[in-house]
Amino acid sequence: MESATPIRESSKTADISVSAVQIPDESLKADESVFETPTPPRRDFESSALYVGVYDYVKQYMSRYDPSHDFNHVLRVLALAKHILVEELAANPQTKYQRQSVVLAALLHDVGDRKYILPGENAERLIEKVLADNGCPPRFIAKVALIVEHVSYSSEVKRPQLVNAMVAAHPELGIVQDADRLDSIGAIGVGRVFAYGAAKCPERGLEGSIDHFVEKLEKVESMMKTHTGKQMARERTQRLRDFRRWWEEEQRLES
To answer: Domain HD/PDEase, which positions (predicted)?
Structure first.
């Protein structure tokens, strides 16, 4: 899916915030009409009881995570997903996206993350419960849960054909994947990788975090699904490479 006008991240993404890109919706009720009207009136899904309930739940749930995967990360992913969705819809209006599923999956994408999940917790059940408790229609619960299940980088590395098939069937997955991966690279990605290293594997030291650039982060660009995501990833990946080069230059001076 190609955007009609190339987007340079430096000029476009600086303005992205959680509220900067509003997705109109047709209903403030958590019934199936919230999900199905093709051209909804301009009423914000973000005002609905379903959205507010999920938002509040995720904010509380993520409070136990370290800064690399905290609620601020979720908000950035949400903003990126909304931005990508708007750009992709403008470029390809014939492609059908279920906008509310993009928003809910972006909010929920790290609930039950295997790196942080507590003993006895089940990620799928957590997601299904919070959606059901806030009035999400049952068949859309399954869709959002499916998107969340396949967002992660590790899921795609293990089962690339399955994930690609899921993206083809549910293009919303590609948007949420791209949003999550964009937040792992660029300047913010640099900060996050060091925060995660300090919290989860301090024994690897700073060098271990730098190694992660090559092990994973610099590969992310090749796995982007949307044209908008690919454009943004190109610039952010270059920032990673620049940082790693500066690091290596300074290391040589110290040795």
So the answer is: 66-194
Domain range enclosing 161: 16-254
Residue 9 lies in a domain: no
171-194 as b/e: b if 16+ CB within 10 A = bbbbbbbbbbbbbbbbebbbebbb
Give the whole-angstrom CA distance, residue 88 versus residue 123: 29
Please state whether beta strands 43-44 and 24-25 pair in parallel, antiparallel, or not at all (unpaired). Answer: antiparallel
- Is 7 a member of any domain? no
**Chain segment 93-151, per-residue pLDDT in tens:** 999 999 999 999 999 999 999 899 889 999 999 999 999 999 999 989 999 999 999 99
- What pTM was estimated for this model as a whole? 0.83
Q: What is the Cα–Cα distance from 115 to 73, expressed in whole angstroms? A: 15
Q: Is residue 32 part of a domain?
A: yes
- The length of the chain is 255
CA atoms within 13 A on the CB side of 245: 6
Longest dimension (CA), the chain: 64
The two structure tokens encoding residue 5:
């006008």
